[in-house]
C-alpha cells in the first residue's frame, strides 16, 4: 500500500465534523471546520458550497453573496443559482434575484418557490398566482399547507390593491393564516361584517394552535395576535367606530411588536384618525413610520399613503416648506396622481393664495385630461369659497362626462337660482335632456325594438317643468308636461299638473283635458282606514273601545253608537258670594267705565298735616264743627245709585287709602341706613 498524504486524512476528519454539525444544526462550528478544509484546498467546490449554506443559515447573507461573486469560476450559476437568488432576495435586491432565477438553466422546485416569493414582492400578483398554482399542482410534500397560505395571500393582495374580485379557490380554512388572508380579501371587497367574523375565527384558531405548545407564553400569543387585532381595528375605523379602533391600536403599540411594518401601518392609521387634531400625538406616531426596514415590509400603495399623510400633517402643523417638499417629491414619483397636487393647492389656500391654487389645478387638468374631472370639481369648490358662483358654474359645465348627471344638473340649477340666472338654469336642464335624447337615439339605432325613455330622462323633464312653473315659464312647462303625458297617458299626476298649468294660460284647453281624468268612482282606493289611523305616522289615533259587558253591551247593540256628551264643569264662585244679593251688572267693566266711578280723590291727612310749630294746626274751626258734618255727602255711593261725587271732594275710598304710618316707617328705614353708613365729618 502507498501512504496517503497527511492532508487527505485531516480533511476526512474535518468532513466528518462538518457532517455531524450540520445534522445537529450547529452551523457556526461547521463553518470553522470548512474554513480549515479550504485552507487545505481553497478551490474545493463542495467546501465553498457548504460555506455558503452555513453563512446563509447564520444570517450572513451579504458575506455569502460576496463569497459567491468572488468564486464565479468555480461556483457557476448552475451550481449555486438558488443560494445566490436567496441571498439577493433577503438583502432586498428583488430585481437582481428575479434575474438570477430567470438565468438559471434548470428550474428546480426550490427556485420555483423562491420565484413565487419574488413575484409577490414585486407586486406582480397575476404571475405570482399562476406560479403558486403550478407549484400546488405539481408537488406533494409537507409544505403544501404553506403554499396554500401563500396562494390565499396573493388573492387577498389582488382584492385589496387591485380591486379584483377574488375567485373561490376552495381552500379549507383550517389554519388561522388562511382565515386571516380570507378576511383581508373580504375587506378589499368592502364586506366588513363578514371580514370581522373571519378575523374572530382566526383569533380563536391562533389561540388554540399556540396554547398547545407549553413553551409559548401569553405574551407570545398576544404578539402573534397583534396583526389580527390590527385588522380588526382597521375594520372598526372603516365602520366609523373610531374610538374603539383607536383603543385597540394603542393596545397593540403598548405590546411593542417586533414587526416594523405592522407598527408603521398602525401609526399611520392613528394619524388619519387624529387628522388636524391632537397633532402632538401624530408627530410622535410619525417616528414609527420612519423605522429602518419599513420600506421592505409594506406595499407601494401603503408606503405612498404614509407619505401623503406626512405631507398633510406638515400642512396641519404649519410647516409649509416641509409640506411643499413632501408633496413635490410625491408628484415626481407619481406625476399622474391627484393627491400631491391637491395637497399643494390646499397649502396655497391656507396661505390665502387662492388664485395661485386655481392656476396650479388648471395646469394639472390640462396635462392630465384623464383626471381633469376631479380637479375641476376642486377648482369649482375654491371659486364658490371665493364667492365667484358664476365662474364655478362655468368650470362645472366644462366637465363633459358629468354634464348630464342628475347630481350635476341639480347643483348647477341650485347655483344659478341663487344667482337669479333662470335662463342659464333652464339651459342646463335643456342640455341634459338633449343628451339623453341623443343617447336614446343611438340605442334605438343599434336595437330592433324601440327603447322607451329612461327613468332619469323622464325625471329630468318633470323637474324642468316644475322649475319653469315655479319661475313663471308656463308655456315652456306645458311643453315638457305634454311630452311626459304622451309618454304615459295613464299618468294621472302628470295630467293633473298639465291641466293646472293650462288653467293659467288656456282655460278652455284645461277643460278639454280634464275630460281625460278618471271619474271619482273608478278612483276608489283600497285603503284600510283603521290601519291608517293606527299607523305610526298618523296625527290622530282612534282610541280602542273598552270591553262591553252585560246591560251596556245590549244597549250598545240596540241603540247603535251614541256619542258621549262632555259634562260641563261648574264655574267657581267667589268666597263671599251671596245668592240672595243680586250681583253688580257692571262688574265686568273696568272701574273707570262704571257709572258710579267718582275718580281718584286726594287724602284728608295731607291737608291736616301741620306746617307750623310742633302741636299747632292749620285746620279751620268750621271743619271742627260737629253740626256741619250731618250735611256732608256720603263717603261712598250705594251700588246701582247714580249719585255723582264732586270732583273737588277730598274723601278717599278705604281701598285707596295708604296704611297709617307708612311714611314714618319709610323714614325710619332711611335713618337706619344713614346710621350704618361709613364716613365722618
TrEMBL record:
One of its GO terms (molecular function) is 7S RNA binding. Keywords: Coiled coil, Cytoplasm, Endoplasmic reticulum, Repeat, Ribonucleoprotein, Signal recognition particle, TPR repeat. Residues 610-644 have a biased composition (Low complexity). One of its GO terms (biological process) is SRP-dependent cotranslational protein targeting to membrane. Residues 563-573, 665-681 have a biased composition (Basic residues). SMART domains: TPR. SUPFAM superfamilies: TPR-like. It comes from Lanius ludovicianus (Loggerhead shrike). PROSITE patterns: TPR. TPR repeats lie at residues 226-259. Belongs to the SRP72 family. Residues 575-596 have a biased composition (Basic and acidic residues). InterPro entries: Signal_recog_part_SRP72_RNA-bd, SRP72, SRP72_TPR-like, TPR-like_helical_dom_sf, TPR_rpt. This is Signal recognition particle subunit SRP72.
